[in-house]
Amino acid sequence: MLAKSIAVSLALAQFASAAEYWESFKSQVNPKNISIPSIPQTTSYDEVTQCTYYEASNFQFVESEWPTPWETATSNGMNKSAEFKALYNSINWGNMPNISARTMGADGAIDMSGYDESNDPDCWWSATTCTVPKHKDVNPDIYTCPEPETWGLTYDDGPNCSHNAFYDFLEEQKLKATMFYIGSNVVDWPVGAQRGVKDGHHIADHTWSHQMMTTLSNEEVLAELYYTQKAIKMVTGVTPRHWRPAFGDVDDRVRWIATQLNLTTVLWNLDTDDWAAGASEPVSQVQGNYEDFIKMGSNGTFATSGNIVLTHEIDNMTMQMAIDYLPQIKKNYKNVLDVATCMNITTPYMENSVKFAPFGKTSTTSSVVTAAGSATSASASSSDSAQTANKESSASKVSATSALALALIVAIFA
Ligand SMILES: *[C@@H]1O[C@H](CO)[C@@H](O)[C@H](O)[C@H]1NC(C)=O
Ligand SMILES: *[C@@H]1O[C@H](CO)[C@@H](O)[C@H](O)[C@H]1NC(C)=O
Ligand SMILES: *[C@@H]1O[C@H](CO)[C@@H](O)[C@H](O)[C@H]1NC(C)=O
Ligand SMILES: *[C@@H]1O[C@H](CO)[C@@H](O)[C@H](O)[C@H]1NC(C)=O
Ligand SMILES: *[C@@H]1O[C@H](CO)[C@@H](O)[C@H](O)[C@H]1NC(C)=O
Ligand SMILES: *[C@@H]1O[C@H](CO)[C@@H](O)[C@H](O)[C@H]1NC(C)=O
Ligand SMILES: *[C@@H]1O[C@H](CO)[C@@H](O)[C@H](O)[C@H]1NC(C)=O
Ligand SMILES: *[C@@H]1O[C@H](CO)[C@@H](O)[C@H](O)[C@H]1NC(C)=O
Ligand SMILES: [Zn+2]
After folding, report:
1. Pocket test for ligand 8, best of 384, 409, 412 (most atoms within 8 A of CB)
2. Cβ–Cβ contacts within 10 Å for residue 334, how many?
3. Which residues line ligand 8 (CB under 6 A)?
4. Which ligand has the nearest atom to the CA of 146?
5. What pTM value is reported for the model?
6. Is 211 in the pocket of ligand 3 (CB under 6 A)?
7. Mean pLDDT in each 10-residue stretch from start to end of the chain (414 residues)?
8. What ligand is nearest to the CA atom of residue 116?
9. Nearest-5° Cα angle at 364, 358 to 367
10. 3-state secondary structure (DSSP) of residue 173
11. Residues near ligand 1 with C-beta < 6 Å?
12. Domains, the chain, with CATH or none
């Protein structure tokens, strides 16, 4: 372990820039040849069966090598690891926009008092839905698909067990989506993440523990992104170039830190509120949102450009709504596809060997140029309960605290 850390830090020390961090992740998975094990967890539609714990053959979760799932990614001493310190020290923090971390109010919402919303100097999305950075050297956000009548398909908060029916549906319909995966979920349900890559979805980073990023310290923001990049790479063999902040909470400080990891922020311009359906919003209201957005595909709203729609793969409610509405979405829009393809990004991962087809080169979806592995369906381990929060989704989760025993840690984000 010590020897390994030293090797990693030496390797990092040779890098010209922080953005090459991903080259030190030694994954056992070839993203072009993923085999999903044909076990009940990956073939059943029964939730209990799907969520029965098992281990992936090519990814062993060693607790001491990762932040504690569903805790801030600096937990478990992970801000002191050689690899993280080398990364941190390779960044020129003096160039960071001079913006302080925000604070949470007693009511569990972010405190925006004192922020100059009319000038919005920090392009703080939570305050103003700003998507065009004000500071320099910050990657600009992606928040809409440029092509007319195009629906940018995105699902947040995966992977998880119990998602076989949903992934099977997308596969049958030849639909590809951008999947924003939570690092804690990736280590808990590795085969779910592997299926996302195998099926040709565009995999992106959705932080380690799904917190309000603008409230975290520089070190915490870096760790939330870095350990999720590492989890996705170790489990699936690819390292994302895109990320989405939980609840959309991003400002130019957080964007700048993401930029150091060569990550681009992806937001949205239509929000279904699907995570709230049946909880803080009536199901009928969310159905109304879907129906309006579907209408917009053929009534001229998107005659000159498209959208990116915020939806979730959290639970049966959100996934079944997607299944129910996708046939109408396909009828009313010319293109329904993942963000990489709609942006004509053919190399959405650091590994340029994994290529997506250019926009327009497949009918309505992208296609990853990969060799197929075996079997279909996926997912893994345990279960938990989800809670809702602010603007976007929320999630809560279980962590496998040892290879054999599962400890349930249900975190509720407000
Ligand atoms: C960052 O990503 C861009 C493409 O998105 C690539 O051209 C560039 O080489 C990357 N930088 C580093 C240092 O890896
Ligand atoms: C793909 O993986 C299978 C088993 O996982 C292996 O037998 C096969 O040789 C691999 N193919 C390539 C091209 O790597
Ligand atoms: C590591 O992170 C923890 C929790 O965020 C913090 O209390 C501690 O000061 C950090 N350690 C170092 C060396 O920065
Ligand atoms: C950063 O901004 C604070 C005020 O918010 C100011 O006091 C401080 O001097 C600034 N630091 C630099 C390096 O500009
Ligand atoms: C298209 O439909 C949406 C949703 O019903 C509506 O808000 C919008 O005004 C309509 N636009 C036009 C040009 O009819
Ligand atoms: C949701 O639950 C119903 C009833 O158990 C089931 O028939 C359906 O397949 C589930 N949908 C998804 C997407 O899992
Ligand atoms: C997409 O990018 C390719 C180059 O990768 C270019 O040839 C093509 O014209 C682009 N298509 C669109 C629709 O922008
Ligand atoms: C994962 O799936 C289980 C079972 O369907 C569900 O209870 C839980 O809320 C999901 N967890 C997350 C974090 O989405
Ligand atoms: Zn989320």
Report:
1. 384
2. 15
3. 47, 51, 157, 160-162, 185, 314-315, 383-386, 395-397
4. 7
5. 0.87
6. no
7. 38 60 96 96 96 93 98 98 96 97 94 96 98 97 98 98 97 98 98 98 98 98 98 98 98 98 98 97 98 97 98 97 98 98 98 96 49 31 28 32 24 26
8. 4
9. 50
10. coil
11. 17, 19-20, 241, 262
12. 31-73+129-342 (3.20.20.370)
User: How far is ligand 1, taken at its centre, from the CA of residue 346, in Å?
Assistant: 14
Distance CA 202, CA 57 (A): 23
User: What is the C-alpha to C-alpha distance for residues 323 and 352, in angstroms, rounded to an integer?
Assistant: 32
> In this structure, what token pair is assigned to residue 304?
């000159």
Specify the ligand 8 atom closest to the Cα of 51.
4
Ligand 6 near 319 CB (within 6 A) = yes
Report which protein residue has its CA nearest ligand 6's atom 4: 316
Q: What does the H/E/C string look like for 209-271?
A: CCCCHHHCCHHHHHHHHHHHHHHHHHHHCCCECEECCHHHCCCHHHHHHHHHCCCEEECCCEE
